[in-house]
TrEMBL record:
<dbReference type="GO" id="GO:0016846">
    <property type="term" value="F:carbon-sulfur lyase activity"/>
</dbReference>
<dbReference type="InterPro" id="IPR037029">
    <property type="entry name" value="Alliinase_N_sf"/>
</dbReference>
<dbReference type="InterPro" id="IPR015422">
    <property type="entry name" value="PyrdxlP-dep_Trfase_small"/>
</dbReference>
<dbReference type="InterPro" id="IPR015421">
    <property type="entry name" value="PyrdxlP-dep_Trfase_major"/>
</dbReference>
<protein>
    <submittedName>
        <fullName>Transaminase</fullName>
        <ecNumber>2.6.1.-</ecNumber>
    </submittedName>
</protein>
<feature type="domain" description="Alliinase C-terminal">
    <location>
        <begin position="94"/>
        <end position="452"/>
    </location>
</feature>
<dbReference type="InterPro" id="IPR050478">
    <property type="entry name" value="Ethylene_sulfur-biosynth"/>
</dbReference>
<dbReference type="Pfam" id="PF04864">
    <property type="entry name" value="Alliinase_C"/>
</dbReference>
<dbReference type="InterPro" id="IPR006948">
    <property type="entry name" value="Alliinase_C"/>
</dbReference>
<keyword id="KW-0808">Transferase</keyword>
<dbReference type="GO" id="GO:0008483">
    <property type="term" value="F:transaminase activity"/>
</dbReference>
<keyword id="KW-0032">Aminotransferase</keyword>
<dbReference type="InterPro" id="IPR015424">
    <property type="entry name" value="PyrdxlP-dep_Trfase"/>
</dbReference>
<dbReference type="GO" id="GO:0006520">
    <property type="term" value="P:amino acid metabolic process"/>
</dbReference>
<keyword id="KW-0663">Pyridoxal phosphate</keyword>
<comment type="similarity">
    <text>Belongs to the alliinase family.</text>
</comment>
């Protein structure tokens, strides 16, 4: 009976893992990036059946790989690694393609009740939150938490500004494009961003083939005498540098994407005070799953148009998510103020700064052991929030393959490290973007594997 059971389990295992490897290989990007299948595959990997649940989510397959790797076992590390793969960790696939902020999980676990939200079935039934606000579906508690946090950190001016909430800052990006593109313009509004730019901008801009706006590429190359919207991402995704607008034309409108303007990633120099600023809990506190972003907008009419977009698009934003985000953001502000208490980690930014600093130290050490790769270096500045002097600690490592390696993504993929090629960011394929926000188990494997790669 026991033998039969083992045989049965083995069969299920082989079928399940064969399916997963098929998915992994389909994750290769084609000429254009296609996020949908890629995210879809992540979902499959995370929830892939019996073996994933029973064996710490490590999926294994007897995979017939192309060429010389035939019949070699492959292990796919998707989340936590609590037991080693049977034939050693060198066969584990490390997926660092997405900037999924799971590294903050440990901090939030020890917060427990303090950030737990309970809602009853009679609550938050209405579409409306505050009919007197331009953004009528914005929960007042979220407004207070957002403004308190910006005041505490000193990274953005909110006084006299309008706040618009979105289902992630991704929705607010689209709302801003809608609000800034004239309906009666001579043609679609040009949308540009300096390369390397966030790989989702071209996709989100052109996804619906709108007549309002079109992706016009690298801002450094934009020389038309036409109106344009320039996306300024600072610190930048993928390379982490602080940025300013580059086109400097008189027909331009700017959107500042400040998803990473938080003290664990960059020294805060002064409160940002731009016309449209986008923020998100995905990168500030690591709650990407809540899908909450906010825009700080100077002009009331623009804020109204952005609200209209979200009204037409999703008739508002989940109240449960807003309330959860409010609780978490408020806890972060409070934790900054009471951070001398010793009992547990209270200051999120202190915790996350130390974690990012430690990870960057480790990845630089790993890269310094080999001549195959290099990383950017950043100037040191003093953070007005923490008083610390440091260089950027980006959420992504913009890794360059040196020498003869022209396609860094394929090169690393052969060594079972999945990253995103520079080509998706309007840059050279000698570069890849590597997430620094994974769980410790994946990050540790990365820092062990990089120096071990020879050819
Ligand atoms: C620069 C930048 N903006 C926006 C987003 C999207 O954030 P959200 O999860 O709030 O949609 C990301 C996510 O990676 C990002 O890197």
């Amino acid at each position: 009976m026991a033998d039969y059971y083992v045989l049965f389990l083995k069969n299920v295992l082989v079928v399940s893992l064969a399916m997963n490897m098929g998915l992994i290989w389909r994750m290769r990007y084609e000429d254009e990036e296609n996020l949908t299948p890629s995210w879809g595959n992540m979902l499959h990997l995370h929830g892939s059946g019996l073996y994933a649940q029973k064996n710490s989510r490590i999926q294994e397959e007897e995979e017939e790989e192309e060429e010389a790797h035939a019949s070699k076992k492959t292990h796919i590390l998707t989340t936590t690694l609590s037991s080693a793969a049977p034939d050693g960790l060198e066969s584990v696939v490390i997926n660092l393609d997405h900037g999924d902020p799971t590294m903050y999980e440990e901090f939030w676990k020890q917060k427990g009740e303090e950030t737990t939200v309970v809602t009853s079935s009679w609550q938050h039934i209405s579409y409306f939150s505050d009919v007197n606000n331009v953004c009528w579906f914005l929960e007042p508690g979220l407004v207070s938490a957002i403004t308190a946090l910006h005041r505490t950190v000193g990274n953005a001016v909110t006084e006299g500004r309008h706040i618009v909430v979105g289902t992630g800052s991704s929705q607010l990006y689209q709302a801003a494009l809608y609000a800034l593109s004239p309906v009666d313009g001579p043609g679609p509004m040009n949308v540009v961003s300096a390369a390397p730019f966030y790989s989702s901008y071209p996709l989100m801009t052109d996804y619906l083939k709108s007549e309002l706006h079109k992706w016009a590429g690298d801002a450094y190359k934009f020389n038309k005498e036409e109106p344009y919207i320039e996306l300024v991402t600072s610190p930048n995704n993928p390379d982490g540098f602080t940025r300013q607008d580059v086109v400097k034309g008189d027909k331009g409108i700017l959107i500042h994407d400040l998803a990473y303007y938080w003290p664990q990633y960059t020294p805060i120099l002064s409160p940002a005070d731009y016309d449209i600023m986008l923020f998100t809990v995905s990168k500030s506190t690591g709650h990407a799953g809540s899908r909450i972003g906010w825009a700080v907008v100077k002009d009331r009419e623009i804020a109204k148009k952005m609200t209209t977009f979200i009204e037409i698009n999703t008739i508002g934003v989940s109240k449960e998510s807003q309330i959860r985000a409010a609780k978490i953001l408020q806890a972060v502000s409070d934790g900054c103020i009471h951070h001398n208490r010793k009992e547990a980690e209270t200051n999120f930014f202190d915790y996350s700064y130390k974690l990012m600093a430690e990870r960057w130290k480790r990845i630089r050490e790993a890269v310094n052991k080999t001549t195959l790769f290099s990383l950017p270096s950043f100037p040191q500045e003093t953070c007005s929030f923490s008083g610390r002097t440091f260089g950027q600690l980006p959420a992504f490592a913009w890794l360059k393959c040196e020498g003869e390696i022209d396609d860094c993504e394929s090169f690393l993929r052969r060594h079972k490290v999945i990253t995103r090629s520079g080509k998706h960011f309007g840059a050279s394929m000698k570069y890849v973007r590597v997430s620094m926000l994974s769980r410790e188990s994946e990050f540790k494997l990365l820092t062990e594997r990089l120096p071990a790669i020879k050819t």
